[in-house]
Design goal:
Largest sheet: none
Shape: globular
Distance between the termini: 14 Å
Structural class: mainly alpha
Number of strands: 0
Amino acid sequence: MVITRSRHRTATGVGTLAALILVLVFGSPIFVDWVNNNTRGDTAGGLFLRTLAWPQWSFDSRLEVRDLLAQDLKAILVVVFAAVFLTLLAGAELARSRGTFAALISGWSAYIFAGALAGFVAAFLSVHAGLYAALGWALAGAGYGLLTGWIVGLAQMSARRP
């Protein structure tokens, strides 16, 4: 029982650390500016890199305060919700099957849910707050989780060696 709990904590910590690194590095203003200036949205690589920069955070004073707060809150909530969902899904995964494929799917799906919920919640702080905007942000967050969640899933998988 003690071994299971320590594996559970380790897997959640590794997955949350991977989510934090994804948001800090690929959501940084430097990366976002580089992506916007050097990629096109109509190519597979450009789509992936632009999606990778979705939870962008900044300290840009040219934005309206509500949009800046919504943008930064979105980045924070992705990491927080990832930790919550990784904890919930890692516990369920440990109870049923201990395979590495289950750990990959568990981490990946947790990141999809985290991106969608972070987008949905943060959209209500933006200047154009409303249900339509929140659903749009949630869809963008789910797409972000779908295209990048495998990285968190691989981190989860590496922490779950039986």
